[in-house]
Amino acid sequence: EAPVVICESCGGKSCYIHKVIWHTGKTCEEYEKDKKQSDFATEDYISLNVKRCPKCLMPIEKSRGCDHMTYNNNNNPIIITISRRNITNNNNNRQNYYQNNYQNNYQNNQKNIFKNPISTEDLDALLPHEHPPSISYFTARPTYNDLFINLDDLINKYKKYPKKQQQQIFEAKVDDLDKLNQLAQINPELTPRLQDFLVIFKRRDLEKAKKELQANKTLDQFGRAYAVGRRKKSVAHVWLVRGQGHVLVNGIPLANYFKLLKDKNYVLKPFQVTNLLGKFNVWIRVKGAGAIVNGLSQCLLIHDINLKPILRKG
C-alpha cells in the first residue's frame, strides 16, 4: 500500500503518490482503475457529442455552432449562417439608423426654435454669471471674514520685512504718552476740539460711569420714574408716577391691549406682589413681549428701594 500522509494541524489524510485526499477503502491500484474508467467515459461522451470547427478548432457541442459554421435549429428547420461580414453589415446599418434619426431630430428642433424664438431673459439665464469678488461671499458674515483674509494677506506680504527692536517700540510708546499728557495739560476751555480728540485715548472709568447711572435712577421734577426693560429682543420704555391706577400700553388701555386675562395679570404682577395695585399711573412704549414686567420692577425700585427683596421673591 502507498504511504498515508497525515497533517499535524488538522489531522487530514492524503495519498503520497496521487497527491489527492486519501481514498478510504481503496488501494492505489483500485483507485487508478476507477480513475481510468471515468476518464474513458468522459472521452467517449466528448467524441459522441462534441465536434471541432475546421477553422478555429474550437470544441463545440454538435447541437450548436460557432461564427464559421452553420447549424440546424431543432425548433425551426431554418439554416442560419453567421459570419463576420454579416456582423459588420449590421453595425453599419445601426450606425446609419442613428445618424438619420439624429439629423431628423436636429432639423425639427431648428424649426421649433424659429417658430418660438428665445427671449432675452432666457439668453441671460444661459450666460455665465460673474464670479463673486471674494470666497467670503458664500459665508454667513462676508465682511467679517474678509477682514481676516486681508489680515492674513498682509502678514504673508510683510513677514520678511525688518522688525523693530523691543527697546525702540517701548520708547515710541513713551513718547506718544508724553505728547498726550502735554496736550491734556492745556486748558480745555480754550481748545474744545482738542478735548474731543483726546477722548479717544482716555480710559473709561467704570466706577464713575456706574455712579452716573445710579444718579439717573431718581425721580424727575414731576415725580416720574423712568426705566428701560429688556428681555431677549424685546424693549419696553416705562414711566411710573403716583396716581389712580391707569395703565396705557402704546397709547391703548391695558384692558384693550391685552385680550387674555392671564396676560393682564402677568403685566400687573409687580404691583400685586407689592400690594401697590391701583396706586400708580403707568405709560408704556413697548416693542416685542416680555419686557414690561422688567421695566415696571425697575421703576418701583426707583420709587422705593426697599421693595427689592419682595420683587426678587415675586
TrEMBL record:
A Pfam entry, by short name: Ribosomal_S9
Database matches in CDD domains: BRcat_RBR, Rcat_RBR
InterPro entries in the cross-refs: Ribosomal_Su5_D2-typ_SF, Ribosomal_uS9, Ribsml_uS5_D2-typ_fold_subgr, TRIAD_supradom
RING-type domain segment(s): 1-104
TM annotation in the entry: none
Record-level GO cellular component terms: mitochondrial small ribosomal subunit
Family: Belongs to the universal ribosomal protein uS9 family.
The protein's name: 784_t:CDS:1
GO MF term list: RNA binding; structural constituent of ribosome; transferase activity; zinc ion binding
Keyword Ribosomal protein: yes
UniProt KW Transferase keyword: yes
Keywords carried by this UniProt record: Metal-binding, Repeat, Ribonucleoprotein, Ribosomal protein, Transferase, Ubl conjugation pathway, Zinc, Zinc-finger
GO terms (BP aspect): translation
Gene3D superfamilies (alphabetical): 1.20.120.1750, 3.30.230.10
